[in-house]
């Protein structure tokens, strides 16, 4: 028996953005609520445009019961073409990956998304011709290689009115002035200079138009090897020590070329190791951190744990959750990256040493480490505008290949690697360990990760500033001709209205430094609570510390592989690093000073909000950090409304009418899935051990023991 809503009688048409075209559609498509054996769901229309795949049911036609945290561009039943990860067809109860031309069309379609949503569509009741059109259309437009100019980004830019919010405070780093201002802000302008050598991209198409180098570096040196072998400034510490990055020379060279390059590098190193510059420590990230291939492999395994098809699979994996999580190696990579950032921070803060990060292109792991170090050491980077400016500086203008690393064009899976997601996962560890230090919330980070796949913003859809600039000119639909006017993702009003934007700002952000032990204790208690989630790491910390040399030879190797050519104290590094780490953690936290993440044992956690938000079985009823944040927002609204009513003398009046102000959010409806989803249904863990339950799956009476649907309109426990 199938529990369904009646097929929609009235015509429901998709809401199209400027430049969006309807390509194909199918009626009488049945969307399962979740593939859990109950066949609950709703009939509707499945459409594919040049921007998204969308399911339209009768609820789509009304604005009633709209979620509080509504995205104005991408609805809850919308999947942008760039957000589609894999598509499976079900043939006679067997799943098959769909790519390219199809000879036979499936009776069921399963779409796995990069934001970890899973959509199940039944096509049994759809006309055969419509099935052919919609399935082949979805597979073609979301899975096959495409040209850059075919991205919806260009269609939207040419058709949409340019009503961007002028109040955006993010520094874009597209002008020489932006770089000079940043030098002045960090007091780096004494030893470093912003250069115009690459104007017209005459040095390299991979470098930005403007960048900063040590004053002693000549223009000839920059031009000699297309910018390779040149230390490029990232940030200056309060004590004058600077963080630099450098694009390495190719390893496979003939002897004469290799010797010339070595001589050139030696000259550069000697120049920037003399006063007024600090001692220089170089760090080749390709040997001290996992490779991009390792990162991609780990994340591919990791995300499979959250692409849950049904309740049965969820409870089957629950019993072996920790071993599955550990085998992905994703949390270990996060730990190693955070440890490297601590190591760099120790050199800058304690040793007053310049650190030069080296990588083949200096646009992947260099971006991760330099960004993390700045978030840890510079409180400006922990404000919303500061963090956005940091992403612009190090990633967008810095030349991270978003187009290739996110595989937006489906050209080569070999280039794909979740480098930017790795940064957001690392920043999240800091946000959840030290909430008052950040002006933004974990919801902000989650939404930012989702924006990677929304092709109306240019921010994450080019490999370099040069590629963006050369593709900016084009024919416009509204004017005869002219450059495209791309939107930036930092204008959040494009995606959210003011009420929703409130969830991106941290109401408990510490505006002034307040080293308070009680706040630290509270934070730790919250972290321990989070360990009780079914899908977070709670591996007990071993007696052997993460830093102790006898625990793991790998750690020794990581620390030992740093090139210590200009530093004599490299042998003492592990001990001084542990001392630095322990010393900092023994003191009260200055939320506007240096922040060091806790990386021992189970301190590294799964980013629960991003990875569990679509899984009802994993929800905490009435709990979770976001539900707590929503309650705080309610209290703030009450306080603000009281302040309007109160006189200047408010010392005794606060306790008056607290309960008279209506709550904007009904706390009974909140869970850890909020604000991305409200309570969907109560999931009941099977009484039998999971292994036994799996063995008995074929027996009807057990399979039909299903989750109860929670009626949101009623009272809930």
Automatic annotation (TrEMBL):
<dbReference type="InterPro" id="IPR011993">
    <property type="entry name" value="PH-like_dom_sf"/>
</dbReference>
<dbReference type="GO" id="GO:0016020">
    <property type="term" value="C:membrane"/>
</dbReference>
<keyword id="KW-0963">Cytoplasm</keyword>
<dbReference type="InterPro" id="IPR029021">
    <property type="entry name" value="Prot-tyrosine_phosphatase-like"/>
</dbReference>
<dbReference type="InterPro" id="IPR030576">
    <property type="entry name" value="MTMR12_PTP"/>
</dbReference>
<keyword id="KW-0703">Sarcoplasmic reticulum</keyword>
<dbReference type="InterPro" id="IPR010569">
    <property type="entry name" value="Myotubularin-like_Pase_dom"/>
</dbReference>
<comment type="similarity">
    <text>Belongs to the protein-tyrosine phosphatase family. Non-receptor class myotubularin subfamily.</text>
</comment>
<dbReference type="GO" id="GO:0030017">
    <property type="term" value="C:sarcomere"/>
</dbReference>
<dbReference type="GO" id="GO:0016529">
    <property type="term" value="C:sarcoplasmic reticulum"/>
</dbReference>
<dbReference type="Pfam" id="PF12578">
    <property type="entry name" value="3-PAP"/>
</dbReference>
<dbReference type="InterPro" id="IPR022587">
    <property type="entry name" value="MTMR12-like_C"/>
</dbReference>
<dbReference type="GO" id="GO:0046856">
    <property type="term" value="P:phosphatidylinositol dephosphorylation"/>
</dbReference>
<feature type="domain" description="Myotubularin phosphatase">
    <location>
        <begin position="173"/>
        <end position="611"/>
    </location>
</feature>
<dbReference type="InterPro" id="IPR030564">
    <property type="entry name" value="Myotubularin"/>
</dbReference>
<protein>
    <recommendedName>
        <fullName>Myotubularin-related protein 12</fullName>
    </recommendedName>
</protein>
<dbReference type="Pfam" id="PF06602">
    <property type="entry name" value="Myotub-related"/>
</dbReference>
């Amino acid at each position: 028996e199938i529990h369904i809503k009646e097929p929609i009688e009235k015509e429901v048409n998709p809401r199209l953005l400027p430049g969006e075209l309807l390509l194909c559609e199918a009626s009488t498509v049945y969307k399962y609520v979740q593939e859990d054996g109950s066949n609950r769901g709703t009939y509707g229309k499945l459409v594919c445009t040049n921007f998204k795949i969308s399911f339209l049911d009768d609820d789509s036609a009304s604005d009633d019961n709209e979620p509080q945290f509504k995205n104005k561009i991408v609805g809850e039943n919308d999947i942008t073409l760039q957000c589609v990860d894999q598509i499976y067809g079900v043939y006679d109860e067997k799943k098959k990956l769909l790519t390219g031309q199809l000879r036979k069309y499936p009776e069921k379609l399963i779409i796995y998304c990069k934001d970890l949503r899973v959509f199940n569509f039944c096509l049994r009741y759809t006309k055969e011709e419509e099935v052919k059109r919609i399935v082949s259309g979805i597979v073609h437009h979301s899975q096959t290689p495409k040209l850059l100019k075919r991205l919806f980004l260009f269609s939207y830019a040419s058709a949409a009115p340019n009503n961007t919010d002028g109040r955006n405070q993010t520094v874009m780093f597209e002008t020489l002035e932006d770089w000079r201002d940043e030098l002045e802000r960090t007091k780096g302008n004494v030893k470093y200079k912003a250069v115009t050598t690459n104007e017209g991209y005459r040095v390299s198409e991979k470098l930005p138009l403007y960048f900063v180098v040590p004053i002693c570096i000549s223009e000839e040196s920059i031009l000699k090897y297309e910018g390779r072998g040149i230390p490029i400034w990232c940030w200056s510490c309060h004590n004058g020590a600077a963080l630099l990055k450098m694009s390495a020379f190719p390893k496979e060279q003939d002897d004469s070329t290799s010797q010339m390059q070595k001589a050139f590098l030696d000259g550069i190193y000697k120049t920037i190791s003399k006063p007024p510059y600090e001692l220089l420590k170089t760090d080749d990230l390709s040997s001290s951190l996992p490779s991009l291939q390792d990162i991609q492999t780990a994340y591919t395994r990791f995300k499979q744990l959250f692409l849950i098809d049904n309740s049965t699979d969820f409870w089957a994996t629950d019993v072996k959750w920790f071993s599955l999580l550990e085998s992905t190696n994703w949390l270990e990579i996060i730990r190693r990256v955070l440890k490297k950032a601590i190591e760099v921070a120790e050199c800058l803060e304690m040793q007053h040493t310049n650190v030069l990060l080296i990588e083949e292109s200096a646009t992947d792991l260099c971006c991760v480490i330099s960004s993390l170090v700045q978030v840890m050491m510079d409180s400006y980077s922990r404000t919303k505008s500061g963090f956005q400016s940091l992403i612009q500086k190090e990633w967008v203008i810095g030349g991270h290949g978003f187009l290739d690393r996110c595989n937006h064009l489906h050209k080569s899976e070999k280039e794909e690697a979740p480098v930017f997601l790795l940064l957001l996962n690392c920043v999240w560890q800091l946000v959840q360990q030290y909430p008052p230090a950040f002006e933004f919330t974990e919801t902000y980070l989650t939404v930012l990760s989702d924006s990677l796949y929304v092709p109306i913003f240019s921010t994450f859809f080019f490999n370099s500033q040069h590629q963006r600039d050369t593709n900016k000119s084009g024919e416009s639909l509204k004017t005869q001709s002219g450059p495209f006017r791309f939107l930036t993702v930092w204008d959040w009003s494009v995606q959210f209205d003011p009420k929703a934007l409130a969830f991106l700002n941290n109401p408990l952000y510490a505006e002034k430094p307040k080293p308070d032990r009680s706040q630290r204790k509270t934070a730790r208690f919250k972290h321990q609570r989070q360990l009780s989630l079914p899908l977070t790491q709670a591996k007990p910390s071993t007696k052997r510390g993460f830093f102790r040399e006898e625990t793991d030879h790998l750690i020794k190797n990581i620390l030992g592989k740093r090139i210590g050519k200009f530093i004599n104290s490299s042998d003492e590094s592990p001990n001084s690093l542990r001392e630095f780490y322990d010393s900092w953690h023994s003191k009260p936290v200055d939320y506007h000073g240096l922040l060091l993440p806790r990386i021992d044992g189970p301190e590294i956690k799964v980013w629960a909000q991003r990875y569990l938000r679509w899984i009802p079985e994993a929800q905490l009823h009435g709990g979770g950090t976001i539900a707590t944040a929503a309650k705080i927002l309610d209290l703030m609204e009450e306080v603000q409304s009281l302040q309007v009513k109160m006189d200047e003398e408010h010392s005794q009046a606060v306790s008056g009418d607290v309960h008279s102000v209506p709550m904007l959010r009904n706390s009974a409806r909140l869970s850890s899935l909020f604000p991305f989803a409200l309570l969907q249904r109560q999931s009941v863990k099977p009484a039998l051990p999971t292994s036994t339950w799996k063995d008995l799956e074929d027996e009807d009476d057990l399979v039909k023991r299903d989750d109860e649907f929670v009626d949101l309109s009623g009272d809930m426990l």
